[in-house]
Specification:
The complex is a heterodimer of chains A (320) and B (163).
Chain A lengths: L2 H36 L15 H11 L10 H18 L17 H22 L3 H32 L4 H6 L5 H4 L1 H14 L11 H4 L9 H26 L10 H22 L5 H32 L1
Chain B lengths: L1 H21 L3 H21 L3 H26 L16 H20 L13 H8 L4 H21 L6
The chains are: A mainly alpha (320), B mainly alpha (163).
């Protein structure tokens, strides 16, 4: 690679980073307004027109707070942990294709790359909980580790159905293979992926790691200032990632009539994000044992059966 | 450029691996192991095995080490508990055998000139799959049976005693 290619790649990365940060900020605002709407409230509407500057105000507040590390915490790990979560989530977007010929990298292990990064994300939450050196964060961290390991397995298996149908790990190839969106061919896979995605991002009804009524605030209880903002940002980027992945893998990515590809991608992703917000207001939190039961006794067998049926049918389909 | 990245990654892998022995806190030691495994994954990627690199991160760094950390956290270990045990009395025999292995390794490294690091062909996931379920099918099946046996054994050991 020569210098110009390096510069192009770096500027591409910077652009994606900027876009992702602003989308995450707008998502926080959007979530608060939509949930308020669904609960017959107003939500934040003071800062700027319709309260659109609320995320900027929140951000300024968090940045200007005192940088504080509790004296009983493990200083280095406490700081590193808060960076891991948004870092792994942001890095995954490198391989997500937004539109035809519009992506940063097309590697032939893209799907595995994303799964690998999502399995590293658990370190952020787990170490954050441990490094705080206090009991509620520790419980939150341990819970989240158990939860994320349990739900990673069915998620990976559900994705294998898509890999069989498209014959590739590359997200670009997967989107190109979807003349018919894979949600029609893989409805069970889609549902399992979405449930696991919600669990992986620790959103309601699976937000056990930060269950307020039993664990204070869970793994981030001892966090404040910009380090808390990192966890917060990581969560919303994670939601965006799951929505974008579901779009790419099951809803046909950029495919769609009339509009250009990027518009379709945006519409589908936003619809899924709305679903996330909607679920948050509608469903109560699960109990911890229920969470484990759903993961191991329902989702994992369902994903295995789905994979086997897909493999057998796919074999006949390709042969015949 | 390639060489710089390769040797830098190798250095990180070795340094992190030695730091495991020195780190005073068990959790820090485990984290150094994670870094060493990640560096190893990058080496796999550089040597043209992207699938292996991804699996290394997913399985070793992402799953097994999480369980390690889980255990360490549950056991509530404190700094200073990573001290190595005093040398057992019978250390001379194993040390001698390890020394022979080291000499063999040095001899091999010296004997066979390492050539052609530049023309690396990346192996696609599809090729790995075809190889595993083609010529190596029997080995894969045997490994699967072994894992099943381990699973059954784990279930047996962790079952509740009937009262």
């Amino acid at each position: 690679m020569n210098l110009i290619q390096w510069l192009l790649t770096l500027s591409g990365l910077a652009l994606v980073l900027l876009v992702l940060f602003s989308i995450a900020a707008l998502m926080v605002y959007g979530e608060r307004r939509i949930i308020a709407l669904l609960q017959d409230r107003l939500g934040p509407n003071r800062a700027g027109p319709f309260g659109i500057l609320q995320p900027a105000a929140d951000f300024l507040k968090l940045v200007t707070k005192e940088h504080f590390v509790p004296p009983f915490a493990d200083r280095k790990i406490y700081i590193i942990a808060s960076i891991i979560v948004p870092f792994t989530a942001l890095l995954s977007f490198v391989v997500v294709p937004v539109s035809y010929n519009w992506w940063l990298a097309d590697i032939n292990i893209a799907l595995l790359f994303i799964m690998a990064l999502s399995s590293l994300r658990v370190y952020g939450i787990m170490l954050g909980g441990w490094a705080s050196n206090s009991k509620y964060p520790l419980f939150g961290g341990l819970r989240s580790a158990a939860q994320m390991i349990s739900y990673e397995l069915p998620m990976g298996l559900a994705l294998m159905g898509v890999v069989i149908l498209s014959g590739s790990f590359s997200l670009v190839d997967i989107v190109s293979a979807q003349e018919i969106p894979f949600i029609i061919l893989q409805p069970i896979g889609f549902i399992i992926f979405l449930i696991c995605g919600i669990a992986e991002t620790n959103r309601l009804p699976f937000d056990l790691p930060e269950a307020e009524n039993e664990l204070a605030s869970g793994y981030n209880t001892e966090y404040g200032d910009i380090k808390f903002a990192f966890f917060f940002l990581g969560e919303y980027i994670g939601v965006l990632l799951i929505a974008a992945l579901a779009t790419v893998l099951f809803l046909g990515g950029w495919h769609g009539p009339w509009f250009p590809g990027a518009v379709w991608f945006t519409i589908k992703t936003l619809a899924l994000i709305f679903l996330f917000f909607w679920l948050r207001t509608s469903l109560p939190r699960l109990r911890y044992d229920q969470l484990m039961h759903i993961g191991w006794k329902f989702l994992l067998p369902a994903a295995l059966v789905n994979l086997m049926v897909t493999a057998v049918l796919g074999l006949f389909w390709m042969e015949g | 450029m390639y060489e710089i990245i390769f040797y830098l990654t190798s250095a990180i892998a070795v340094l992190a691996a030695s730091a495991i022995l020195i780190a005073p806190h068990p959790v820090h030691a485990a984290l150094y192991l994670v870094i060493s495994l990640l560096a190893l994954a990058l080496l796999f990627f550089l040597l043209g095995a992207p699938l292996l690199a991804a699996l290394q991160v997913m399985i070793y760094a992402g799953a097994i080490m999480v369980l390690f950390l889980f255990l360490i956290m549950v056991m509530n270990l404190r700094p200073g508990q990573n001290q190595s045990a005093p040398l057992a009395s019978g250390w001379k025999g194993p040390a001698f055998l390890a020394l022979i292995l080291l000499l063999e390794l040095l001899w091999i490294l010296n004997r066979f000139q390492i050539t052609a690091t530049n023309n690396i062909t990346a192996i696609e996931p599809k090729a790995v799959g075809l190889a595993l379920f083609g010529p190596y099918l029997l080995v894969v099946e045997v490994a699967a049976v072994l894992l099943l046996a381990a699973l059954v054994a784990a279930l047996y050991l962790s079952r509740k005693e009937r009262s």
